[in-house]
Automatic annotation (TrEMBL):
It comes from Himantopus himantopus. This is TIM protein. InterPro entries: Timeless (IPR044998), Timeless_N (IPR006906). One of its GO terms (cellular component) is replication fork protection complex. Residues 18-159 form the Timeless N-terminal domain. The gene is Timeless_1.
């Protein structure tokens, strides 16, 4: 299965423009369903160990079909069909195709593959955050050293006892403290 075949199928699937989804003809609907069934049936073909006697690490026929689907962009179209609200009628076909895509993979392998990337990204993010934190602390220390020492202009508030203000309250006097002995 060369990359050209999935391109033709993808072109046939995308022929009706997205604006015409409501006005899709019966032939277009049948064509889309037949293409999805064809992709499903191709992926459903079981592996033949006698035919696939390659070198260890060689891509199987199933892997090459998946690669051709990826190169043609059919996988993106399948993701669109799976997530578009107006395309819910194809959800089961797309789900079956995706299930067949992962047929030869064990859940442990898939989880380990994702964890390796996540751990590498997490380690890189941690190092980047730590370097940003160190740079921020250094800038904070530099700003603290450059700041001139300033004296507060607030000298205090005093209540003058024995001197009444309006309403029989004591007078409050605000004075800047310039000379401590005064």
């Amino acid at each position: 299965a060369g990359a050209g075949s999935p391109r033709v199928l993808r072109a046939a699937l995308t022929a009706p423009s997205p604006q015409d989804w409501e006005q899709r003809q019966e032939e277009d609907t049948l064509l889309i369903e037949r293409i999805l069934l064809l992709v499903r049936n191709v992926l459903h073909i079981p592996p033949d160990p006698t035919e696939e006697q390659g070198v260890d690490g060689d891509a199987s026929v199933h892997d090459r079909v998946l690669w051709a689907l990826h190169i043609s962009g059919m996988d993106d179209l399948l993701k669109f069909l799976a997530s578009a609200q107006v395309e819910q009628q194809w959800a089961l076909h797309v789900l079956e195709i995706i299930s067949l895509m992962f047929r030869d993979q064990s859940p442990e392998e898939l989880a380990a593959l994702g964890q390796g990337q996540v751990a590498a990204e997490h380690g890189e993010d941690t190092r980047e955050l730590e370097s940003l934190r160190q740079r921020e602390l250094a800038e904070k220390r530099a700003r603290a050293l450059q700041r001139p020492s300033r004296h507060s202009r607030f000298g205090g508030s005093y209540v003058l006892q024995g001197l009444k203000a309006i309403g029989d309250r004591d007078v409050v006097f605000h004075k800047g403290l310039h000379n401590v002995s005064a």
